[in-house]
Structures
1.
Amino acid sequence: MLLRGRPRALGAAALLLLLLIGFFLFGGDPDCELGSEREARRGGGDPGSIPGSPTPRVPPDGRPRSRGTAAFDVDPPADPGGHNSSDCLPPPPPPPKCELLQVAIVCAGHNSSRDVITLVKSLLFYRKNPLHLHLVTDAVARNILETLFHTWMVPAVQISFYDADELKPQVSWIPNKHYSGLYGLMKLVLPSALPPDLARVIVLDTDVTFASNIAELWALFAHFSDKQAIGLVENQSDWYLGNLWKNHRPWPALGRGFNTGVILLRLDRLRQAGWEQMWKLTAKRELLTLPATSLADQDIFNAIIKEHPWLVQPLPCMWNVQLSDHTLAERCYSEASDLKVIHWNSPKKLHVKNKHVESFRNLYLTFLEYNGNLLRRELFGCPCPPPPGAEQLQQALAQLEEQDACLEFRQQQLAVHRVHITFLPHKPPPPQPHDVTLVAQLSMERLQMLEALCRHWPGPMSLALYLTDAEAQQFLRFVETSAVLSARQDVAYHVVYREGSLYPINQLRNVALAQALTPYVFLSDIDFLPAYSLYSYLRASIEQLELGGKRKAALVVPAFETLHYRFSFPSSKAELLTLLDAGSLYTFRYHEWPQGHAPTDYARWREAQAPYRVQWAADYEPYVVVPRDCPRYDPRFVGFGWNKVAHIIELDAQEYELLVLPEAFTIHLPHAPSLDIIRFRSNPTYRDCVQALKDDFHQDLSRHYGAAALKYLTALQQPQGPV
Amino acid sequence: MLLRGRPRALGAAALLLLLLIGFFLFGGDPDCELGSEREARRGGGDPGSIPGSPTPRVPPDGRPRSRGTAAFDVDPPADPGGHNSSDCLPPPPPPPKCELLQVAIVCAGHNSSRDVITLVKSLLFYRKNPLHLHLVTDAVARNILETLFHTWMVPAVQISFYDADELKPQVSWIPNKHYSGLYGLMKLVLPSALPPDLARVIVLDTDVTFASNIAELWALFAHFSDKQAIGLVENQSDWYLGNLWKNHRPWPALGRGFNTGVILLRLDRLRQAGWEQMWKLTAKRELLTLPATSLADQDIFNAIIKEHPWLVQPLPCMWNVQLSDHTLAERCYSEASDLKVIHWNSPKKLHVKNKHVESFRNLYLTFLEYNGNLLRRELFGCPCPPPPGAEQLQQALAQLEEQDACLEFRQQQLAVHRVHITFLPHKPPPPQPHDVTLVAQLSMERLQMLEALCRHWPGPMSLALYLTDAEAQQFLRFVETSAVLSARQDVAYHVVYREGSLYPINQLRNVALAQALTPYVFLSDIDFLPAYSLYSYLRASIEQLELGGKRKAALVVPAFETLHYRFSFPSSKAELLTLLDAGSLYTFRYHEWPQGHAPTDYARWREAQAPYRVQWAADYEPYVVVPRDCPRYDPRFVGFGWNKVAHIIELDAQEYELLVLPEAFTIHLPHAPSLDIIRFRSNPTYRDCVQALKDDFHQDLSRHYGAAALKYLTALQQPQGPV
């Protein structure tokens, strides 16, 4: 009895356990009911397909129209009570807490660089694991992204760059009609381009946005069978069904095929399987009958998968919700409780038509406008090497005293601003020996100066913009809607992201200065409009004066000001003098701060026919043209006060001649005082702090130049600080 | 053989299944290893405690110091191979896709209202379920939050308000020393205050921030045993251990006690258990020996739990990571792979000292600065009634034609801006029959006007600020650091959140106007400074002219302008006239747009000793004082142009007398032209669209006023639009 009873009891217990497992593993997750994975694994919607088949079934004709739209439709569960484990895998356990996840992205050019940053922001927002980003970039993107990540200082993120131009020959033989161009094909060469010891990687297009933790995606590697090497989400359009229009002849694919915007790659297995030969053979064979790829790498991936279906592990549809034109993605997202990754794979991108696009766009805008500084969050409990410089920064910040009245200044000086150089497409000027770049910095409230500046200065410019992430997007739209600005490719805009309460004026100037590509720079301010002729006059003067050889000089551009917003800009020095005499123009800050420009000697300038040398005097802050390798601005000066004065002292200390140009002029336009100037005027502590900066500066000056710096200290004794 | 073999095979299968279950259920989740729940369930760190006991064990002395800090420490697993199911429950399955989740929050006053919005933003960001928010508010918070949610229009969010003042008597007898005051105690009365059919609710403090989907928290209700009614996270400080300082005598609690910043409440069970009597009895009894509650409701909750330990279901520590002073939370968050809820439960809030506070602060700032408009995301596949007005809005937007050259204008007109009235603490002015509120609107770039305006206008103001969420925080800091601004309680700041590319000037004016609380309003612009005496002079004039009775009048305040940022403001009309004659001042827009103020008749004003009546003429746009119930501004005028002109026409059409005040004046300060004015000047399409708005306006005017509106149309025939 006992023996006979036990098997029954055990059998019942086992059944109960099976039911329990069924409930816990598959009953709880409504996403599990999504057709994508189940159907893809079934290999077709036809009832005769083999349930539980580990690889997609290849229908006999290779283009299984019978699957129709069912592939990622949500079928009413055929068997509502029980889910078969091969139909629907449970979400695998997340990777261990501090496991390093590997991500590869191909990125080229200015616009893609902006896109990839938004993608990375979404990634970082949800991630809980250390990440290693493998970026395959052209020179432009590398330049941008290297600066950005260096200044971003996100903990637990490693970056490696790979030269896309070196990889080009491997794919450039493939004719391709896709808008992504040659770079679109580069995902094919990742197994050989990435380090040989890298076994797994998630490959992402630049136009995807994460809405969840990438570790959940990484965890899906666990579902791979022994042979599977490529994880992909099925296409959410009918493209590969070949019925979109008459004579539409897509590349071969299994049914709807797969989308390569999000790929899980087992690099080790692909290498073992002879991937390089495999894809090249397939591509060459197909190109015998097809003129070119239409969807770049995706066509080739699909052709390979059609040939070697055992390679692919289908992924749940919500890991690549494709908002292409005529997308069928709604079948996925209206049932899923959770969208994981959104893919803007229409050439129209955010402007794609879709009744739900507004909601997806909101998610995208979230990260587009997200303050990237906030992603400098630690991963608690993960021992990762800090980003370069982070430890020194932490130490310096820790040494600040909370009671210091100038704490705000000290914090601002230590702030490491994220820098996005050449935020918009930019074409470097052709090398010319006497060319000059106008260098300036601004924030949103001076944006309206840009068009006028472009009209006045036809040459190259390097402008640093101090913006929030959201403002950077407003700025982008501003340029796009301005005919004047969008016509200019020689203006480089460098976004320096805001952090802290004081305007880091000299740090901004240094960013713009460092990015100037001509041998000379005109160090201007954004509220000045140069004479129309200044650009060509400066180049002629530089040539004439034989600057750049042994002669170390700063050319002074005399500064004037108007008090009227609308005035007719003088077209010549003669006209300017007439306006000056009529009281419509003044020499700059004539009323408030004459010593700032007094040494320029306006009286002499009136009569001057040739450049004349002037001597430095206290508080002199002219606008000058200097070689690009001139001294940098002193970044300790933040907020209002003394930022240019210190730079001119530095030039003088380094024995730059100060030469005033007789035909050059620039005119300041009126604007409301900045918040910093208001604080300077109204707040004695603020003024004390600026004074402390000046004192520090002079100490450093004496230390550096010794007795030669004495004259600056002496000048300082005569109390006449800015008011 | 067969029969004998089966039991063994079945036994082995069962064992395997058990192991499998063990692995899937408990092996995968590292958070599961956290001590919080396991330890709390054990009831103590002593090895002799009863593993798997369903309720916390009450140590004999009631204050189990032996538990020490172990309660939410991560112990090295005593039994590394297998986890006992009572030690560590798996995360329960999430609630069904569209299940409505219930949340209750107590909120009173201006500052708490700002806090609760940040909390709600974090909630909405991660949520996938419809939510019903039950807000227990005082009148101030209700006014703010009602307007906010009404204009926010978030899909799938229901709001119910409960009057905190009505509930006060139920808790006001309890002496309380906690900074949250009486409102801190109100969570105790939720079972009776919330609707009787509401069975479950998550109760949140206003100082918590979500870092995850609230549905995961809701799912923990599934862990409640039949009797448990309160889900809480253990305290992450030693407060209730009573050893923080000498003679520190906290309320009784189980060990470290529990924190009530996040509560899962089974309201149904509490009602059944006679909650009201229960907590009142306990509180009264404890208050016999203790002078007051120190931590408000939390003291009483803990005392009850100590008495009725079966009531509590301990929750995993990451659902309430407490950043109190001297927090021990690091033990929780350094091991968890995922923080769920952060609780700023120090009186220092974000300024609390903690080596990791920067990372937590970043998460908080994420939602503080998050563009709330982006939370207007649909929940795909959840059939929820749309927010009031949403359908009409959708229809109106759908009717716009993409090819319309003025599409931008039409979209801007339809934009529903989130409005946060009285963003900062505000004391309404005491009712006075002739009092006047200055009404104006501004955006960030005019912030620097506020201090000067406060000096010039000592009376009440109602200002609409057009800001992003991030700018609203900058504005807050700006006010906090300004002695002048923070001294004023009679200035009401209403934040209207930015949306769209055109400045919705008249919508802003209407918000400020609607919130003015005095019988009269001075409709000004932010770049004007009124005469120092204007406030008192206006009140006297209103009284003298017996306005408000039968006399329907608009008092004209003549407008002037200076072209210098810094000038000495005239202290009297005589001084003003001197400056005018000296050419230091001009009548407003004398050079660019004289017709805007010509009817004011400045020549007559020079000599006037008494108010004089003037007649409307085309393009007249004076600054006027009118009764608060005056016509609203026409919201169709967005961007630059004609926005005030239309309002004055409306006043004239409604037969307001236009009376110029002989001693009143206001002076415009210079500023750079706005982006909208620049677009108006440079963009012919923009001007055409403004013209189209004017035409529409006149059509409506004729429809409304018939023949009486003829004069406005006639005036329009003479072409002289603004330049």
Note: Chain B touches chain A through 76 residues (CB under 8 Å).
2.
Amino acid sequence: MPGSRPDLRVAAREIDLSPTETAGGPRPNPPLQVYDTGGPYTDPDAALDPARGITRVRAPWIAERAAGTTQMGHARAGVITPEMEYVALREGLEPAFVRDEIARGRAVIPANRHHPEAEPMAIGRHCKVKVNANIGNSPLSSGVPEELEKLVHAVRWGADTVMDLSTGEAIHETREWLLRNSPVPIGTVPIYQALEKAGEPEDLSWPLFRETLIEQAEQGVDYFTIHAGVRREHIPLARERLTGIVSRGGSIVAKWCQAHQAESFLYERFDEICEILAHYDITVSLGDGLRPGCVADASDAAQMGELRTLGELTERAWAHGVQVIIEGPGHVPMDQIEANMAAEREACHEAPFYTLGPIVTDIAPGYDHITSAIGAAQIGWHGTAMLCYVTPKEHLGLPNADDVRTGIVTYKAAAHAADVARGHPGARARDDALSRARYEFRWQDHFNLALDPERARAYHDETLPREAHKEAAFCSMCGPRFCAMAISQEL
Amino acid sequence: MPGSRPDLRVAAREIDLSPTETAGGPRPNPPLQVYDTGGPYTDPDAALDPARGITRVRAPWIAERAAGTTQMGHARAGVITPEMEYVALREGLEPAFVRDEIARGRAVIPANRHHPEAEPMAIGRHCKVKVNANIGNSPLSSGVPEELEKLVHAVRWGADTVMDLSTGEAIHETREWLLRNSPVPIGTVPIYQALEKAGEPEDLSWPLFRETLIEQAEQGVDYFTIHAGVRREHIPLARERLTGIVSRGGSIVAKWCQAHQAESFLYERFDEICEILAHYDITVSLGDGLRPGCVADASDAAQMGELRTLGELTERAWAHGVQVIIEGPGHVPMDQIEANMAAEREACHEAPFYTLGPIVTDIAPGYDHITSAIGAAQIGWHGTAMLCYVTPKEHLGLPNADDVRTGIVTYKAAAHAADVARGHPGARARDDALSRARYEFRWQDHFNLALDPERARAYHDETLPREAHKEAAFCSMCGPRFCAMAISQEL
Ligand code: SF4
Ligand code: SF4
């Protein structure tokens, strides 16, 4: 889609549809255009070379701007940046509306000026609900090629942002390859790398953390998870819990505070952190280090105490022009989900909420992509802006490529269900196109309109593999004589 | 659990737990008792012979009662039947409360006097949310041994009732084997067999349907889905829809009405149907023949018109002492779920609601166990009494054994999440036991407390297969140095 300047062209995907057969002959169906996160990886004409990296779509726009200016700063000054226009075209929103949302902190565009490869996207309660996928190597596994493959896999299935949670060897190098080849914003948790450098949590320090922040900022990371809301006074509250502290960053910060009998440097140095972030226009994702790890601990004093601190930090970040998102639970029973959303909205002045699920029951390990999608869809409907996916391996082990695919598609479905329930403009177009194809037995269109066409096709073909069955007025579920849709059409 | 008479012993499952290691030595954890649907199939001491059938637990109770008396009739007369007491013990409710719920039609115990093998269970808004699994052969597949295996599989994974939707050969014989070996209530849709006999929808007739009803009633079917709510006046309303009529029963009835230019015999003969049902104490599941088949058609005039008719039929059935449940959608966007529950409650005088999902977005074929679990968990929380499972093959083909397992476990999780959100007494005990085991790295307990212990164990063992890792204070997800729960425990 062309924008207002020649170097602004918004990527989208078009799904071709076959004609509807009618008594009067075939009636064509227009193609359906859908939001696409795949960047060049879903462009059949793109020439790809990971060693060179992908196209730097934002390079000319960044070159026109001074360092230290942020999307939020421009928005407050009334400027519609090319990034805002891109997002508006992508989402079907008015550019001025996007600008206003960013100015008041209700939406963010995570876009480090050192990551020109990223296609602009927005996270906010009036945008489509987004999905984040976590990847990253661990001391036990995988190198650069595997992580790059996971990235491509993730954006192809629809991840809107990707967090690189690497903790093993070659963290810096892995991140460099990811950034130079990522069409979506990349997030990290800098304290992981700082801890790799320090060895033990108690040996962490502000200079070491600051150095790590700058190292990652220079590379182009678009948003940082920073657990600055874990204050000393909150830590004893977590002792009463069934499952203590289940955030890696939160547990590390708590350990540091305990060892030093001091407030964490993340909280103490928050303004200095913001100065660094503003310089690169990095978004801060305020980590929920005290999120509940089971439904019993949901909405407790530790979680709510931290949330209030996150609200205070939001205002401090905004004072520096730094864009903010707020991380949220975790594990929440369904009856508390709407209240969790309302509490965040109030405590954090409508800064976008970014939740991990939440999981709504603890009794289904192996199925936690599902128990969490139940919570994610609901909290998305109530206004959460981005959902961090959970894979079937949650609580049990490191996900493999197939788990990543299952996790992302599950979350794309949950996010889309939230868009539909919110009445987001145009959200239902894909549902309706697919339902129409289903009713007209256009099986190829049915598959192509699905979030995971390959799986839909494979499931269908398990019992009816022949090409002729792609035209059949039934499937093996009810069989030819009992196909309700076929009987209905005869009426 | 022993009841008030020697022949009343309620089945339950006990999960042994290992001790917690403390500084002062091991501290034992009491076993956790959970609701069990497996009947003799989960009893290691049971001698099983499908040719003889399982124990006829209800035989002595039925022998004490006259034919034509129903649980509803007894309840209205103030009698607490052994079935009501069984249900009360199983659910942790007061027997008098169960009786009162049944008397006013807010709960049902589907239990044909010709199915003494079934362990009593209740469906109602103040009981645990139940899950139904559909099985059944089709013209394309599977004989008696396969269907029996699916039944055992279904109850083992937790199906509270099973519907036999067979449409192919040997319907009568298959059903006989299922009934004689089923510890859970069996439901059917009698019009399927009637259609097999008739050949074409227009050749269906009241005598043929009546004969089929009695044939199945004699065998012991516990509840019948009957699409008596599809009235002639509703059928034109479905023409405006994106996906017309998607209920098999509904499309058959609509076809008959159109061919005969008449009101269906199911509606016209409803009182005669009720007389048959009362004789055996069969529950009627009022089918939603006009349920929406896509989110665009949700809550439309056809659906709501039929729902009002179901309310009228509910009162007619109750006048005969026949227990009633109401089938519901299907496909509903999240923002309409609570209203759908409220509409049913009002139109059908609080008769238990029994929904198929609902699916909350149409764009994820291959993942519809998930898109529907999102809706199912929510509508269960709002008061739906039983959830009909959906498998990953929905809309695409006949499920296989693994799809059945995935569908049931997914729905058990959704139903349990609803119980937790409703604050059902004791519902959270299993969540808390599992979370505690998780936090204390009692991996075997963690797996054993899961809804699907085999899958949880397999996922864990994919990366850490050694026995020693079952004691490890980490898993491969965050790895030994970054395990948040391990760091938290050091605090
Ligand atoms: S056979 Fe059943 S599931 Fe398959 S297309 Fe027809 S109505 Fe849909
Ligand atoms: S490594 Fe992570 S997922 Fe595994 S037990 Fe520890 S905190 Fe839980």
Note: The first strand of chain A starts at residue 13 and ends at 15.
